[in-house]
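@channel sequence for tomorrow's demo:
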Amino acid sequence: MATQSFVRNTIGMRLGRITQLRAGGRTVGCRFYAYQGGALHASEHLPGPNQPAVEITTQRYASSTAAHNAFVLRAGRSASVTQTDLGGATGLCFQNEFDPQDKGADWACTTNKAAVLVLVRTVDTTGTFNTALVLKTVLRAVTA
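structure tokens (generated this afternoon):
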């Protein structure tokens, strides 16, 4: 869906491990975790070892309309919703509580590609640009 180097460079965080999310025998997402340890760890704002820095998930719906409605409802329940151009698709970015220590200031972006809802959640509290860029890249890899 996205390479570790792309996510690292886009989010601006050193990454350690990656896990795949699977359902029904298919990969439906992945999680990227921040590098733990090292000389700079204590001085950086990094999530703990069990908190992903970035989570990418997909969910298949019965139709494109159902996937679209689901992403609009998901974003609409959140704070600071903004529309973003994803180059051929429109997405919604919003603040949510992904890392509890950020108290609801983390950014997420979502959209659909045909009947597939795509959601990217990050521990990025600086704004929508980086999270939207990850979503835009993930969309290219999603099979509708």
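heads up for whoever presents: The helical segments are 4-11, 64-76, 129-141.
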